Amino acid sequence: MKVAVVRFPGSNCDLDVLYVLRNVLKVDANLVWHRSFSHNDFDAVFLPGGFSYGDYLRAGAIASHSPSLPTVRKMAEEGKPILGICNGFQILIEAGLLPGALLRNSCLRFVCKWVSLVAENDRTAFTQLLQRGSILRMPVAHHEGRYVNDEEGLRELEENGRVVFRYVDESGKATEAANPNSSMNNIAGICNKEGNVLGLMPHPERASEPILDPCGKTDGLLLFRSMLEFLRSR
Amino acid sequence: MKQNPTLNVDLTEQETCGVRKTLGREPNKIEWGMLDIMFSEHCSYKSSRPLLKGLPSKSKRVVVGPGYDSGVVDVGDGYVVAFKVESHNHPSAIDPYNGAATGIGGIIRDILCTNCRPIALLDLLRFGDLKNKHCRWLFKHVVRGIAEYGNSTGIPTVAGEVSFDNSFETNCLVNVACVGVGKRGKLTLARMDKPGDYVVLVGGSTGRDGIRGVTFASKTISEESEFDRPAVQIGDPFAKKVVIEATLEAAETGFVRGIKDLGGGGLTCALSEMSNKGGTGVEVDLGKVHVREEGMTPLELMLSESQERMVFVVEPEGLKQVLNVFDRWELPHSVIGRVTETGKVVVRLSGKTVAELPSKILAEPPIIRRRALMPRKHMELWRVIKPKQPKNLTNIVYRLLSTPNIASKEYVFQQYDHEVGIRTVVKPGEADAAVLRLLETDRAIAVKADCNSRFCYLDPFNGHAGAVAEVARNVVSVGAEPIAVVDGCNFGNPEKPEVFWQFSEAIRGMVYMLRGLRLPCVGGNVSFYNEDEGSGRAVKPTSIVMMLGLIENLNWISTMAFKQPGNLIIVVGRTYPEMGGSVYYNEIHGIASGKPPRALVEKEKGSINTVKQSIREGCTRTVHDCSIGGLAVALALMAVKGGLGARVNIDKVPKAGVKRLDELLFSESNARFVLAASENNVDKIVRFAKRNGVPAAVVGEVENSNHLSIFNREAKVIDCLVDRMQKVWSHAIPKLMGEIC
Question: Which of residues 521-560 of B touch A (CB under 8 A)?
Fold first, then answer.
């Protein structure tokens, strides 16, 4: 089992994701330069957070034209697990692998803080070990994370359980105050129809060791573990 | 207007004569321009150097001391930490967004020069009153500039210090610090040691931006400053991120012998300082420099401060390998020359020599001995008529919590990505210092910066000695051993004897406390001319001290939040009636005068050692340094952070000479901590205090309630609601910024 972490110029969280895969989970993971990425070698792909190409033009827009994206698309079609975190989510959306758009936060500022998420789909490649309705804590850190879609697009996502994570308060309610960027329907993460491609704005890699979590938990690690479980049972 | 309009330079008569004499000829126009830059206060430290020499700079951990781009200390297991502070006050006062952003850019490069990976940023900011529109504008855009640049480079901004005072209305202070980690055996220095090595210019292309930025920074701010806007550089954080990764990868090849960033003074500064340090010379061909605009003159090329550029000194046999790394990162580069043994900086263009000056003349301008004179009326600042004690002290606590200097700085740090890098163990706002684990070892470091400008104005000696002590207490509070500092000095015009007196007193104060605590100062930055020409007003003297602490055992990490109902609250250190410069006097009574707290080495040592031992012996994990707002505010914040109440008997606090309740509650005396510990650990803590010669007393208990109740003997004198305190404390700055009503 081999996992790729794709590194674009401007990626920031590449080494963090790699650390969790290698040092916390002891997985065979490689940092792959975006120009030399070929899928035959890998069983799963992470598109890490950061500011690929400086987020110039639009967050993720330039990276979505990287030579690595056709490979990512092919792997997605083969049903391999693909996780886009933060800027990685933005890239997946710009590349059309996930629907909708991510706009500037409504407060017009970068927001870095720990948030609560409710897991609404426990069948994706990255959420198998989660309980539906369970609440997870992880940090967000972004300027452009306000998820939007048209009415039909939203309905399609909602009706098919493709809203995987939603921002909620501590009691599990999707309130306005709990929504750090004013995403529609408090959406924090969505998946494709098949459930093997997931994108989310919060950073699971920053919530994968007790020492980093103010509450001493490791909620983010569940996404990584779910993926391993998914690969094992495939 | 230049000091010397004929030559179009700011050099004094004495300086121009000195140059002619040493050189034995008249320099040409380009050479005068290069000398002008290098002799500026910003590059030469000609006023401050004689005094800075007095700062202690050695310890068994110091690997690289002052004089290089950053200080480097050993943190064990073969690893080192590099850190440095830099000011970007002048550009930020004119163009807050770009000024602050490029400040971050510059300090990151300083760390990179040592081949250390930058892992944390700190921002140390001073603004005027937030009720003033101009101050809000500066505040908002400085923070945005730091956020957008820092976040994009993937370096977390983990700590800092923001405070507000009228003296910073026109001249805001923007000091930024960076911390890096690297392998001891792989350090590089900004030197040209070996003739024959190639000189490679890497990164952004050279343009006309930022020309003479340093001479601009060596002037006071005036109405003409608006026209100096072209002297402010424009940053490109994406290019910086690529420069960071490519630099570290290039250094990994083993063929890079020296690295220096191009900041103030551009190529002139980098080439002369590197060759002078190595005792070599250098010859460059300006025709090779990759430029972004046509027709730049040799002087413009030599002075440009275009951002995101580095100079690499590369061994000839490894040149190709190093250039391959830059190519892969698609990073522009040009081989512009070679190291020589001539001792000179030789600049050529189209086959002709256009400038030829000894490196030493450029890099070691003569110092200027400035006159220091205590202002005649300084003592009058200490005179004060004591105000009447307010009846409702509960209300005073709420009011203090909502003053911008005490209020939560979440508005600021929430805009910074303080988590990237997965090292940030103690996050902004959770404790007195930030804690970063070193992924490379099983240790952690603590970082924090401090300075109380109000104290430093009233008494520069005690104020700055106190700044060193406070920042030491801050890192001790999170479980660290203080190991080294860097300082960021911000003062007015040094040509004024009263300003230079403030500076010399500040240095004297820092020397006193650093020696006493046996701490080295491994680098720093001096920014003069922080003055507004219109009003003639200088900023309050502010030498910000940034401390690096080492935590050898992650179990020692402590924070300020009350954690367990039933824990007893202990105050370490004695409270004195030292009200001058306190937030209570300033904000509640409108009194700016008075004598600020004294800073005494023996007392600091005693308190620090008591807390260090208490943490290491496992007696406590709840520690907070008592500073602005006094004991009442310290207790309030520990309650707010923990979401727990407390019952306190303030009369039990160790004190001397205190006759009033408000003095006991709000005095900002040094050398004090507040701890919480379980009952069975209290005796030990008190014993440690006794052994260290400082008083410690149990003053109350943490409660599972929403009340912070403070009693004086039998009488309840304060009854604050924890949730209301949380609200006024966290809403104050967003309210002033118009974000919430």
Answer: 554
Is the ipTM, as predicted for this complex, more than 0.90?
yes
Helix (H, G, I), strand (E, B) or coil at B140: helix
The beta strands (E) that lie in B12-116 are given as 62-64, 71-76, 79-87
A206:B422 CB<8 A: yes
- Which residues on chain A place their C-beta less than 8 Å from a C-beta of chain B? 9-13, 15-16, 19-20, 33, 49-51, 53-56, 107, 109-113, 139, 141, 143, 203, 205-206, 209, 211-212, 214
Catalytic site residue from B88, B141, B333, B731: B88
Is B154 close to A51, i.e. CB distance below 8 A?
A: yes
Helix (H, G, I), strand (E, B) or coil at B259: strand
Above 70 in pLDDT, residue B233?
no
Please report, rounded to a whole number, the percentage of residues in chain A having pLDDT higher than 70: 100
Rounded to the nearest 10°, the torsion over CA B67, B72, B73, B75 is 180
Query: What is the C-alpha to C-alpha distance for residues A104 and A110, in angstroms, rounded to an integer?
Result: 9
d(CA B260, CA B440): 25
Distance CA B729, CA B400 (A): 9
Residue A115 gets the label, from left (phi > 0), alpha (psi -120 to 50) or beta, of: beta
CA distances from A202 to A83, A114, A180, A198 (A): 12, 9, 10, 12
How much is the pLDDT for B533?
77
pLDDT at B724: 98
A204-215 per-position pLDDT tens digit? 999 999 999 999
Name the residue facing B238 among A51, A139, A211 (closest C-beta): A51
Parallel, antiparallel, or unpaired for β A111-119 and A163-168?
Answer: antiparallel
Q: Does the pTM exceed 0.90?
A: yes
Q: Mark yes or no for CB contact B237/A51 under 8 Å.
A: yes
A49-70 pLDDT tens trace:
999 999 999 999 999 999 999 9
Residues 6+ apart with CB under 8 A from A59: A51, A87, A90, A94, A102, A143, A144
Q: The domain containing residue A44 runs over which residues?
A: 2-233
CB contact under 8 A, A112 and B148: no
* DSSP letters for B112-128: HTTT-EEEEEEEEEEE-
Percent of chain B with pLDDT over 90: 87
Give the single-character DSSP code of B40.
Answer: S
| Tally of domains in chain A | 1
Instruction: Reply yes or no on whether B42 is catalytic.
Output: yes
User: Residue type for A41, please?
Assistant: D
Cβ pair A109:B421 closer than 8 A: no
Of A53, A112, A214, the CB nearest to B414: A112
Contact A53/A89 with Cβ under 8 angstroms?
no
d(CA A6, CA A83): 11
DSSP 3-state of A87: helix
Task: Note the pLDDT of residue B67.
Answer: 84
Number of CB pairs < 8 Å for A and B? Answer: 86
CA–CA distance from B562 to each of B35, B654, B722 (Å)? 58, 21, 12
Q: What are the tokens at B186?
A: 């792989």
Domains along chain B? 1-39 (no CATH), 558-741 (3.90.650.10)
* B367-379 average pLDDT score: 92
Asked whether the beta carbons of residue B416 and residue A20 sit closer than 8 angstroms, the reply is: no
What's the sign of the alpha-carbon dihedral B419, B424, B429, B433?
negative
Could you report the per-residue pLDDT of B32-78, keeping only the tens digit for each? 999 999 999 888 899 999 999 999 999 999 999 998 889 999 999 99
Exposure of B682 by Cβ count < 10 A (0-12 exposed, 13-18 middle, 19+ buried)?
A: buried
Query: What residues of A are annotated to the active site?
Result: 86, 203, 205
